[in-house]
Task: structure prediction
Amino acid sequence: MRGTVRGVLAGLVAATTLAVATAPAAAAVAGRISVDGTRIRSCAGTSSACRVLALGYFGDSVTMKCDTTVGGLPWVKVHHHRSGKTGFVYGEYVYQDASGSIPRC
Result:
């Protein structure tokens, strides 16, 4: 009986792992920077802990990975194509280029 229980448990773990591994990831959305000099930050916020990684300029291409709210303000995690940096921008300074839903961070 002990071997049977182990076998069943091993099968359940394998099935659960497979289900988690094959779950579709939320899609990122193409976007653009809408304001010159937009700061791409290491975290969502304007505190000194959120250092500036790069500057974005009007029309720069980004991939919008997820969004969040900090202190009641919208922030979007983006990959900035020109600089190659990934960080957060204030949500009002970026817009979607294509339809789609940006997942929550």
Notes: The longest strand covers residues 61-70. The chain is about 20% helix and 40% strand.
